[in-house]
Amino acid sequence: MTSIAKPLSGVSGKRARSKAANRRAILEAGRRVFARIGFEATTVRDIIRETELAAGTFYNYFKSKEEVFEAIAEDSTHRFRSRLQDVRAYATDFETYVHDAYRAYFGFIATENEEPIRNGAPHLALIGVRVDTPEMLAVADEIRADLEHVLSGEGGPKIDTAYLTAAAIGIAREMGEHMLMRRPVDVDGATQFATAMLLAGVREIAAK
């Protein structure tokens, strides 16, 4: 009697794809539910109902809605980092870096929230809501290093880059939230305003 066994690599590969698909389904469901009814009102059961998965399957990946939310924030931040890398590669001076970084951020969150905006969902999922996640802390470190680099040229202003980084990120988060509430969403307007505000502050400090 001859038995035909499937290669173990094929079985493990299929299992890995299934796990990835299940995790992705939960995160996408979480995005939709959080956008529709808000984080506080959302329950794990709401997220599960948005998928075709069993409750037990959900708990194989996440213990709570908080973990789903954190994973969504981490995922968004990870994908934004690639845009920031492009900004870093092409920025030639401080003003260009600030403008292009804000443009990348505001454009990214506008794209991320296209579906909730289109559907009239009142709650929007902002990247960076959790500023203490490892991914977001890494982004902050990268931004600080970028600012130190573009400000290091001869005659450049002497600025506390830790404060500057905090201010730059704070402006982006607060203005991004307001930008997403506007109709139409004004990425260019938000970019110009945020850039002008940060640059004016730097000039004021440098002049003292």
Question: Describe it for me?
Answer:
The structure is a single chain. This protein has 208 residues and is mainly α. The protein has two domains: 12-63, Homeodomain-like (Arc Repressor Mutant, subunit A), CATH 1.10.10.60; 71-207, Tetracycline Repressor, domain 2 (Orthogonal Bundle), CATH 1.10.357. The protein contains nine helices and no strands. The chain has helices at residues 8-37, 44-49, 55-59, 65-90, 94-112, 114-118, 134-150, 161-181, 187-207. 25% of the residues are buried.
User: What is the N-to-C succession of helices and strands?
Assistant: HHHHHHHHH
Give me the Rg, rounded: 21 Å
How many strand units?
Answer: 0
CATH architectural name of the largest domain:
Orthogonal Bundle
DSSP helix fraction: over 70%
Summing up helix and strand content along with how strands pair, one would put the structural category as mainly alpha
Shape: elongated
Question: Any low-confidence stretches, pLDDT <50, length ≥5?
Answer: none
Averaging pLDDT over every residue, what do you get?
86
What is the CATH C level class of the largest domain, in words?
Mainly Alpha
State the major sheet.
none
Can you tell me the CATH topology of the largest domain? Tetracycline Repressor, domain 2
Q: How much β-strand is present in the residues?
A: under 5%
Number of helices: 9
